[in-house]
Design a protein that fits this description.
- With 128 residues, the protein is of the alpha+beta class.
- It contains 5 helices and 4 strands; from the N terminus they run αααββααββ.
- β3 and β4 form a beta hairpin.
- It is globular.
Length: 128
Amino acid sequence: MKALIFIVIGLLVAGCGQSKKTRFIDEIIAGGLSERDAILQADSSFSDYKVYRDGNNDGVCYEYIFKVNLPEDESNRFPSSIRGELINVLKSDGTTKNVMGKGIYFRFIYKNPDGRVIADQKISSLDF
């Protein structure tokens, strides 16, 4: 019985549940995945869309795969043009700003159908 008490106390001290950041990240991922059907509708530019945690880091990845390869000149301009748009969208959402203030970042990855990365943009509270 004493051993059980020490195990329970040890778990409470060490923390056996998810951290707040992990819960926020899980909620963000669930929200992003709930939008999948809307993003992949018939007239969409994308053939696939994924949302997942950025490894063991405190970030959420949104991965978009285009239906067709972008022309070379458009592929070259895309990273710089999309970054400003992403920052503006994230700035306008109060919930997102709050989450980013807790140290969670967002990463947006855009790929051609052949798997080539066109843009990989990491946006954090430092970008505001």
